[in-house]
Amino acid sequence: MKHFFATAAITVAASVGTLCAGTIVSTQIGGVNGLTDAYILNSADNPNLITGQTGNFYEKSYDNRLFQAATTTDPTNNAPNPTPYSTYLTTTSVQGSLASSGLNAGVTFSMINDGCTDASMSINTPTRDACPTQGGPNDGANFSSNAWMGTSQGTLGNGGALIIPIGIFDVTDVDTMLNNLYGQAGAQDSAITFTFGASSNDTSGDTVTLTLNLTNSTNNSSNSGSGQIGTSLECTGVGTCKDNASISYATGPLAASSSITALDSLGSMQTVNVTTGSAYSGNFNNATGKFLNHSGQIVLSDQDFQVPLYTADPWLVSVSIQELNGATNVSATTLSAITVESVTPEPSTVFLMVLGLGAIALASIRRRRAAAKV
């Protein structure tokens, strides 16, 4: 009998061990339409997901807002404006996708497609004007909404964070498309929080959270890269793109790889490795605002976070984005898309686990029967 139990235990241990040999599955959050308002607020009433929140984040356009009306000499179907992806239109949101490059090559993102338009030129005006679910009037402006921009300071504590439902088991990597508008060089204006739970929609007090403060890049386009987030317009040269107070913006390249160390809600120190890539890159020869009369690169950056695995809380319940600065014309943390990678066990692994657990159960029954006869 002891040999039987040992064999069963080894079978289960081998089964659990082979989980690492499972298949990596990549999931574009929000499906083919990306991070729409309806998905975030869970208006489809999916019981397997929490209801997210938009907080102090609002849907804004690439052309008018994040790219600051930048013009390009690159051949595009949107000339003289850039075309981040092949189906992109200035005037309306459409289905589209972008693939990362560099260390994050192979990661694909679904772009926002929910028909909203961005009616306001001012980045600190909170409007989503053609979104009836938001109650805002449509004043006839004609710009597509492509990303969620934090227009004022908003954290998990004050209800201003952007909370995206995820609900996926055994996540290994979270890939984001994050930029900012006027992030100050070297500052920490943005934060990302991962919430893990015992189920896909866990809202109990036993969830585990891990918050990482992201560092902006420098103001030097010729350096080797620094930080995890930066502006979408990378000005050519050193120390360019400053405002009247000589504040330098995070217009330099990002660090290809870095790490962030932080305490999780359990009090354990976690180190998360971060790699960055570029989902889109193009040239610009002029723009508006702080980028007037400057030239350089237009980029949509992406970040891969290698998140820890919590055995008791194996579900990634949500990802939250926070704007930590929020002053007018500063930072404006912007999220375009999220993709997560998770591990699913091979069929043989599942079979071995079931077989092992069944063997243990059968042995337990036999032992109880034997004891009853004594």
Overall description:
- The chain starts with a helix and ends with a helix.
- Helix 1 (2-17) packs antiparallel against helix 4.
- The longest helix is centred in the C-terminal third of the chain and has 27 residues, at 347-373.
- It is globular.
- Strands 1, 2, 5, 7, 10, 11, 12, 13 and 15 form a nine-stranded antiparallel beta sheet that branches. A four-stranded antiparallel beta sheet has the order 6-14-8-9, with no helix packed on it.
- It has one domain (23-344).
- It contains four helices and 15 strands.
- It has 374 residues and is of the alpha+beta class.
- Mean pLDDT is 80; it is low at 1-20, 119-140 and 346-352.
Segments where pLDDT lies below 50 for 5+ residues? 1-20, 119-140, 346-352
Tally of domains? 1
Structural class: alpha+beta
Separation of termini?
Answer: 16 Å
Tell me the Rg in angstroms: 24 Å
Task: Explain briefly what this protein structure is.
With 374 residues, the chain is of the alpha+beta class. The chain has one domain (23-344).
Topology readout:
Elements: H1 2-17, E1 23-28, H2 37-40, E2 57-60, H3 62-66, E3 97-99, E4 108-110, E5 147-150, E6 162-169, E7 171-179, E8 190-197, E9 208-214, E10 233-235, E11 257-263, E12 269-284, E13 296-306, E14 315-323, E15 334-344, H4 347-373
Antiparallel strand pairs: 1-15, 2-5, 3-4, 5-15, 6-14, 7-13, 7-15, 8-9, 8-14, 10-13, 11-12, 12-13
Helix pairs in contact: 1-4
